[in-house]
Amino acid sequence: MLLIFASVERKALDDSRMAAEIFVKKQTIDLRKKHIGPSCKIFFSHDPVKIVRAKGQYMYDEKGQRYLDCINNVAHVGHCHPDVVKAGAQQMEVLNTNSRFLHDNLVLYAQRLQATLPDKLSVCYFVNSGSEANDLALRLAWQYTGHKDIITLENAYHGHVSSLIDISPYKFQHLSDAEKNQSVHVAPSPDVYRGKYRADHPDPASAYADEVKDMIHGVHEKGGKIAAFIAESLQSCGGQVIPPTGYFQQVAQHVRKAGGLFIADEVQVGFGRIGTHFWAFQLQGEDFVPDIVTMGKPIGNGHPMSCVVTTKEVAEAFMSSGMEYFNTFGGNPVSCAIGTAVLDVIEKEDLQGNALRVGGYLASLLEQQKEKHPLVGDIRGRGLFAGVELVKDRLTLTPATAEAQEVIYRLKEQYILLSADGPHRNVLKFKPPMCFTKEDADLVVGKIDQILSELEEALGLKLQNTMSLQNGSSKRQLPTEENGHGYLGALSHDRGSSRGVPQQAKRLRT
To answer: What does the pLDDT look like over 368-377, one tens digit per residue?
Structure first.
């Protein structure tokens, strides 16, 4: 048995080296700098990882080194899942064309997808990315309501096209007021940890919803009219924020009373990731149904596809504009075959159940870290969508940004890929492939435990001592443009020692 395993490992190593032989790593870096736009950031920019293949929850570099992937919510059912690969390849051998021709794959997939949603959400528009989906959702809302104003949330990110940059404070917050779209209005993020209304508030859901209500009144007073409220069902780039139960229902009531629609963005968190439900908006309760749902990333397990699902009434209003909607690649036979295969694998391998079981186990491990480490301020999430917010002081909630970046880089050195995000880049984000196991959770949390212990020892920090951390003297600095989000952190520790004292970090304009 050991000989067989060794043979398999050698073959995997040979395969990865063969895949890497086009260019050596330095040439790849040089060519990327020459031909790829400089605003296209890369993970771990001071020492990028060159990935040549992946399988399940693991990625392999050009030397055959295996990394545990805790980042990729795109490879939803696991990297290169054989059933998904086979479905795409088989259909590609037969036909791929646009949806103006009849093909059973389109309607079969639409039927399968709709079966996971409330009956009211019955009409699908297939597109190719989360950005396309959210852009189309805005068009649907504008056409249905005849209104223009959009309400979005603090720290939200909905995509990279112009219409979505306008509604993504995560991106546009560095612009001057004159540069911002005046028909876009930003409501407070429903963050009960560091937001305006916190866990000790008697009714944070109503308090945050009332902020939206007041905003609507303000828009009306200035002559505007609300077309839509858009929110990620769970904020991802905003720092793994879980809205309080009842918030969406109350917001929807206020928005609909004003003639607007509720758009739920499930691009990051849909398809069973939260464990208890297939869609994250369902966490709010059975009495809440959005008017439009957008989905992307995990829908094709890495294949570029996405979807907008809405009501019959909204779809008919869109048609009444007289403008035909056509998308060259949206809903093509190959994409639909792949999408169907993803749904099959989720069901066959009980990946939603795995998200619930392993996610619960991961949460319990992380809660233990909170009890042990003063740097851990908050643990939050659902299923395999979890966040660990690091703070320098549990009373003031001063973000431990540099410390979070140190954790990310230390993990990378130990072949674990994790990211940090949120408005202060101090939230460690778990959103791994859904085949993530309890053993994987043990490994990564064990490493985080060790890293935090070393950081806290170097900082002289103890659990009962919640004073703010002081910066240490710098012996070296590394860029930490983590996750491609333009965050530059200075890191200081002697490479001969595993104990580092992080320095302050600053944000770069992107």
So the answer is: 999 999 999 9
Q: 179 pLDDT band (50/70/90 cuts)?
A: confident
Q: Tell me, what amino acid is at 114?
A: Q
Name residues whose C-beta falls within 8 Å of residue 37's C-beta, 6 or more positions apart in sequence: none
Rounded average pLDDT over 484-506: 38
- Separation in Å, CA 102 to CA 168, 286, 336: 37, 35, 13
**Distance, C-alpha 67 to centroid of its chain:** 20
CA distances (Å), origin 179, targets 165, 174, 315, 497? 11, 10, 32, 47
Alpha carbons 371 and 172: distance in angstroms, whole number? 37
Contact 379, 386 (CB under 8 A): yes
d(CA 19, CA 7): 18
* Residue 369 DSSP SS3: helix
Per-residue pLDDT band at 464 (split at 50, 70, 90): low
Q: Burial letters for 64-87: b for 16+ Cβ neighbours within 10 Å, e otherwise?
A: bebbbbbbbbbbbbbbebebbeeb
**pLDDT the model gives residue 323:** 86
Angle at CA 241, nearest 5°, toward 149 and 259? 25
Number of DSSP helices (H) and strands (E) in the chain, helices first: 14, 17
- For 313-418, strand residue ranges (E) read 376-382, 385-390, 416-417
pLDDT digits (tens, 9 = 90+) for 339-355: 999 999 999 999 999 99
Q: Find the helix packing angle between 247-257 and 204-221, rounded to 10°.
A: 20
Q: What is the CA radius of gyration of the chain?
A: 23
80-99 per-position pLDDT tens digit = 999 999 999 999 999 999 99
Instruction: Report whether 300 contacts 271 (CB < 8 A).
Output: no
Q: Could you tell me the two tokens for 369?
A: 């870290």
Question: Can you tell me the distance from the alpha carbon of 187 to that of 301, in angstroms, rounded to the nearest whole number?
Answer: 32
Question: pLDDT tens-digit profile of 139-171?
Answer: 999 999 999 999 999 999 999 999 999 999 988
In this structure, what DSSP letter does residue 447 have? H
Q: What is the DSSP string of 56-72?
A: BTEEEETT--EEEESS-
pLDDT tens-digit readout, 3-46: 443 444 455 555 544 555 599 999 999 999 999 999 998 999 88
Q: Are 293 and 308 in contact (CB under 8 A)?
A: yes
> What average pLDDT does range 458-472 have in this prediction?
61
Specify the amino acid at residue 248. Answer: F
